[in-house]
Write a structure and sequence with these properties.
Layout: H1 12-23, H2 27-34, H3 40-47, H4 55-65, H5 69-73, H6 87-92
Amino acid sequence: MGREARDRPERLGEKLYQIRSDLGLTQAQMLDYLDIDYHVAYLSLWERDKTEPPLPVLLKYARRIGASADVLIDDDLDLPPIEPLPPAQRKRLKPQKPQKPQKHRRVVRRKM
C-alpha cells in the first residue's frame, strides 16, 4: 500500500506573489499583515512554488483578499481584483527584524 504524491496546484506560488505585489507589501510586511510567525524565507519558498504553505496560512491569505481558499488552490480560478493598501496602513506594518539568540547567564552560587 504505497503512498502516491497528490496533484499540486501549479499557480499557487504565482497567486501568493500576486497578492503581495498587488497589496504593495514587502515579504516581511506580508507576514505581519497575515499575522503569522514564519521566517521571510518561507514566504519566498511559497511564492516560488518550492513548498506549499500550511492550510491555516492559505486561509489567512484568502480572508485578507476576501476570497475563498478555492481561488488560491484551483488553477482554473483567477484572483479577484486586489486594491493596494493605503500608504498609512503599510507604514503601520513593522518589518520583522532578525532575532538574536539570547545568551544564557550562568548562575554561580557561592558557598557561605
